[in-house]
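Possible regression after last week's pipeline update?

I re-ran a chain I had predicted before the update to compare outputs. Posting the input and the new output here so someone can diff against the archived version. Not blocking, just want to make sure nothing changed silently.
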Amino acid sequence: MRAHRIDRPDDLDAVRDSYDRVADNYVHMVRTTGVGDIREDPWLKASIDAFADAVGGSGPVLDVGCGPGTVTAYLAERGLDVSGVDLSPRMIEHARRLYPQCRFDVASATELDLADASLGGVLGWWSLFNLPRDVLPQVLASFARALRPGGYFITATHVGDGDVTRTEAYGGVPVRWTTHRWRPEQLVDLIERAGLRTVAELRLPAGELTGPGVVITARRPPH
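New output (post-update):
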């Protein structure tokens, strides 16, 4: 059972509706251009591969904010016992259609019922930046509790100062969400305060479609 209640973001419904609206365009972009597909980015793929190697067969893996399931399916191909959840029902529809061999469910990162020490790995892959600054630490703490001793967490997110409010995305589709940007050292501090220990950090320069980013991998201490 989940022993700790996580605050529900005030704009959760607006964020869910926004991702439902952009889901079709986002999936089309990934399928036709490769943007968002880790197979097309050697540095992101190397990070996910290292995570997969580290987790191995240590337990189930949960991809939180899986979108259309691209990374979930890649990890399944690597032999991991992985499932995905996403806030957007439309994203999950696409994930189930594209990767019927994988398990997907609709769920918010703030509303998961994660048993203590039940997972070998957790991903928050470009999926946690919409969480308010007072909510993200609570979610990270829930991930830390859910990991088995020695389990791994990996996250990737946008780097910067302050917040960016989006009103359109992926081909001009109207949206309403806030991207909360973090400095890498701030995010590392939050992760370690949650009870994990950082084992790797990859800083990414600004790309054609996004600003700078960071990938952080952390581990729950084995003892």
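Follow-up from reviewer: compared with the archived run. The longest helix spans residues 12-33. Marking as no regression found.
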